[in-house]
Design a protein that fits this description.
The structure holds 2 protein chains of 2 kinds.
Chain A lengths: L2 H21 L1 H22 L17 H31 L1 H6 L5 H27 L8 H28 L6 H14 L7 H7 L1 H9 L1 H13 L5 H21 L6 H5 L4
Chain B lengths: L1 H9 L11 E10 L2 E11 L4 E5 L6 H8 L9 E4 L2 E2 L4 H6 L1 E4 L11 H11 L4 H14 L15 H13 L5 E5 L7 H18 L2 E6 L10 E6 L2 E7 H7 L5 H16 L3
Helix pairs in contact in B: 4-5, 4-6, 5-6, 8-9
Classes of the chains: A mainly alpha, B alpha/beta.
Chain lengths: ~270, ~270
């Protein structure tokens, strides 16, 4: 296989993901409505309850809406990662995963292509959200919109790789609701998405440490800093590490020799 | 017959030509304690229409999953044009077209989009793939439906699209796992004749798994798989004669009965 063919393969996988995304209008709209509900209703309600002091990367007092916007962008990516994981499980149950796995490209590359396709979709969704959020006075500097792109790609990769890991462990679609409850909500609430961590630290130290090791916290923080033209090196390093670990576990999970695919076959 | 196969496995492994589309040697597979395949040996040569005949649960799908590398074989060897699927999966998969038992098309995409997706998974650019897709669809009589969503097609048409898809990258070995399940008589006949034609005209090696005995015509080769073992294999007339039957159905029933007695179940 030549380099050109690798590009063709990636292109094909991304194109398919995009076509599926356009065909599923409901999925597209709900992915957009969810964070907007948080922004427009939840944040408005807490606007006068929670004051946010001046913490980096902000240089002035900010309204609560501005504080939670980066967390909501990360939430879009979290849902997207889980959604593509769900579609992997669906593909496996429906058989179309087999089409992917009998491709002559190495399996790690196919998984990576699948991952990048999901990231592409989630980056586009994030920008659509940021565009709408602008009307709610979420107005980061213009350069922030550009600076946030690598942050979105990195956090999308991490959350997508996590989704791949989960999809290799989930046997059936029915189990997925459980994963939503045990992955999405805990990750979202034990993070800096809704409240600054210094507040959490005051409330409970164990919870604070839980938030600190939560990769979702670092996805949120990387996006938050990037939106205001700042680079959060710690969060970036943590995300890179998590992405690598998740990717390795996913490749093992889909390996025909060691992976769960082989064990699962007993049920057929 | 069983004794023949046992002694065959003790012979030194034959030199495998890079021209042999598929060669399986000493292949066994188990899921935990359950043995699904035991010491499977056979070849599919160019132009061979080989019917893998077995009841449900005989191990046909597992054999397909191993040949297509969905699972790894832990014992034995699977060679595609002389390339070991474990050592060089890329070279082996490149020359193989597969129609799985389960439908694997994306229902919400058009026929063409499905085929372009498959072509990209084989590294074919849209420019290269376009005429091939048009040709394969025309051959299965679906050229006019290429922009329709797969969801709008009937079961028989979907199968034909899957066959066209398996051929887009011009494979020389074609594997079909129970391709006619759930199809009406006409679609079944069309599919069978189409593949037999490809076999004759293009010299494709074909492995066609089924539980329908009438899909093995007199000029086909047959492999009878039962409870993970090969009971007999060869040209249909040979296998029929060796079992002392007048037709393949009789031979199949005879072999399965004998195998059942041999096991001496409590």
């Amino acid at each position: 296989m030549t380099v050109g063919q690798y590009v063709i393969c990636l292109n094909g996988v991304v194109r398919r993901e995009a076509l599926r995304w356009f065909n599923q209008r409901g999925r597209f709209i709900s992915a957009l409505v969810r964070p907007l509900v948080w922004l427009v209703i939840f944040a408005a309600g807490f606007h006068f309850v929670l004051g946010v002091s001046i913490i980096p990367p902000y240089e002035t007092y900010i309204p609560y809406e501005v504080y939670i916007a980066p967390g909501l962008v990360a939430m879009i990516q979290l849902f997207n990662g889980m959604q593509s994981s769900l579609s992997m499980v669906y593909d496996r149950e429906m058989g179309s995963m087999k089409t992917l796995l009998i491709s002559p490209f190495p399996r790690w590359y196919l998984l990576l292509a699948k991952l990048l396709a999901g990231v592409a979709v989630s980056v586009v969704q994030s920008y659509i959200f940021l565009a709408i959020a602008w009307f709610w006075e979420i107005e980061p500097p213009l350069s922030g919109y550009l600076a946030v792109l690598p942050a979105l790609i990195l956090s999308g990769l991490m959350l997508g790789a996590l989704g791949l890991v989960l999809s290799s462990f989930i046997r059936q679609l029915e189990n997925f609701a459980g994963v939503m409850n045990f992955v999405i909500f805990p990750m979202f609430f034990t993070s800096s998405a809704l409240y600054p961590l210094w507040r959490v630290q005051e409330a409970s130290l164990p919870l604070y440490w839980l938030c600190q090791i939560n990769p979702f916290t670092h996805a949120t923080e990387l996006i938050r800093f990037a939106l205001y033209d700042k680079f959060n090196a710690t969060s970036a390093a943590v995300l890179v590490a998590y992405t690598i670990v998740f990717m390795i576990v996913a490749v093992i999970g889909y390996d025909p020799a060691r992976g769960l695919m082989a064990r699962r076959a007993g049920a057929e | 017959m069983l004794a023949d196969i046992a002694s065959a496995s003790q012979r030194p492994a034959p030199v495998v030509s890079a021209e042999t589309p598929l060669r399986v040697e000493g292949l066994s597979h188990a899921f935990g304690p359950r043995k699904v395949l035991q010491n499977i040996e056979f070849s599919v040569e160019r132009g061979d229409f080989t019917v893998l005949l077995g009841l449900n649960g005989a191990g046909k799908s597992t054999l397909f999953a191993l040949i297509t590398r969905l699972y790894h074989n832990r014992t034995g060897r699977i060679l595609i044009f002389g390339e070991d699927i474990r050592r060089n999966p890329s070279a082996a998969l490149k020359r193989m077209g597969v129609v799985f038992q389960q439908p694997t098309l994306d229902l919400d995409l058009s026929v063409e989009q499905n085929l372009f997706y498959h072509a990209s998974l084989h590294g074919l650019s849209r420019r290269v793939a376009e005429p091939r897709i048009a040709a394969e669809l025309a051959r299965v009589g679906l050229a006019s439906r290429r922009r329709d969503k797969v969801r709008q097609l009937s079961g028989g048409q979907r199968r034909r699209v899957e066959l066209a898809r398996a051929l887009v990258h011009a494979p020389e070995l074609l594997l079909l796992d129970e391709p006619t399940v759930g199809l009406d008589i006409e679609s079944r006949y069309f599919l069978l004749e189409h593949v037999r034609h490809l076999c004759r005209e293009q010299g494709l090696g074909v492995l066609w798994a089924t539980h329908l005995i009438d899909e093995a015509a007199e000029d086909a080769k047959v492999i009878i798989l039962h409870k993970g073992r090969i009971l007999a294999q060869g040209a249909v007339p040979e296998v029929t004669r060796a079992a002392g039957a007048t037709h393949l159905k009789g031979a199949f029933e005879q072999l399965i009965r004998t195998a059942g007695e041999g096991e001496q179940l409590p």
